[in-house]
Amino acid sequence: MSWSTKEVVITVIAAVGAILGIVNTAFAMWKKRVRLRVRVMMTCERHSRIGVDVTNLSEFPVTIQSVGFVIDSWSVRMLKRVPLLKLMAGERTGRYLMIKNPETSSQGSIARQLPAKLPSRETLIALANPDEHLKPDFSRVKRAFVLTACGVLRTGRFPKGFRAG
Questions:
Q1: Separation of first and last alpha carbons in the chain
Q2: Strands in the chain per DSSP E
Q3: The pTM is what?
Q4: 10 Å Cβ neighbour count for 94?
Q5: Going residue by residue through the chain (165 aa), what tens digit of pLDDT does each one get?
Q6: What's the CA gap between 79 and 108, in Å, rounded?
Q7: Using alpha carbons only, how large is the chain's radius of gyration in Å?
C-alpha cells in the first residue's frame, strides 16, 4: 500500500498532537503539586537556636500547619503513616519532636503564628526556643519536617557535619 503525501502529513500531525497532549498533561500535573524546600538552620545570637527554613516552590500559596524534627532515621513513608491529628495536636512520641509555638518570620511579615499561609516563592523560618537543640532528645534527630494544612508532609536533612545536639 502506498501512502500519498496528504496521508503522511495527516499522520505526522496527529502523532505530534498526541505527543504534545501527553506532555502538556504531565506538565500541568507537575505544576499543581505542593513543592516545599525544607532546610535546618542555626542562629548565633546571644543563645544559639535551631530552626526550620521552609521555602514554598509551588505556583500557589500553601498553609504551613506545623514544623518539627524527626527522631531516628525512619523513612518518609513510615512517617506519613503517623496520624495527622497527633502531629497537629503536638503530641510527642518516639518518632518526632514538634517545635511548639515557634517564633516565625518571613519576607512579608515579621511575626507570624502557625498555621501560616505562605505565598509562592516565599520563605518562612520557624525557630525553636533558645538552646532547645542541647536537650538529650536532639542527639537522635535526623531530619526536619513540615506539615501543611492539606496533609502534605515534606522533610529535609541536616547538613553534613551539622550536629543537632
A1: 76
A2: 36-44, 48-56, 62-71, 96-98, 103-106, 116-118, 123-127, 141-148, 153-157
A3: 0.68
A4: 10
A5: 688 999 999 999 999 999 999 999 999 888 889 999 999 888 777 777 888 899 999 999 999 988 888 876 444 445 455 555 444 444 444 466 777 777 776 665 555 678 888 899 988 888 887 777 777 767 777 788 999 988 888 988 887 766 655
A6: 31
A7: 22
